[in-house]
Amino acid sequence: MYYRNIADLNNIILKRLSIIPRDIDLIIGIPRSGMLPANLLALYMNKPYTDLHSFLNGHIYKAGARSQF
User: Fold this and answer.
1) What is the DSSP letter of 64?
2) CA-CA distance, 32 to 4, in Å (whole number)?
3) Amino acid 69: pLDDT
4) pTM score, two decimals?
5) Hey, which residues does 49 pair with through a beta bridge?
6) pLDDT (tens digit per residue) in 18-52
7) Where are the domains of the chain?
8) Are 52 and 29 spatial neighbours (Cβ–Cβ below 8 Å)?
9) Between vectors from CA 41 to CA 67 and to CA 52, what angle results, nearest 5°?
């Protein structure tokens, strides 16, 4: 088993960020292990994000102003 830390996750997301379409409106994370990657993606893409349960209930977190990566 190969252990990856948060820095590894962040580096992988940054390396692969170019393959994600720019015309998406919202990032939805799956609770538990999917929220951190969803949050990082939302930060780097300056998009709103939420978890699946909140999305189904109509709640979406707001995106803040950030420079583009």
Assistant:
1) P
2) 16
3) 44
4) 0.78
5) 27
6) 999 989 999 999 988 899 999 999 999 999 889 99
7) 6-56
8) yes
9) 135
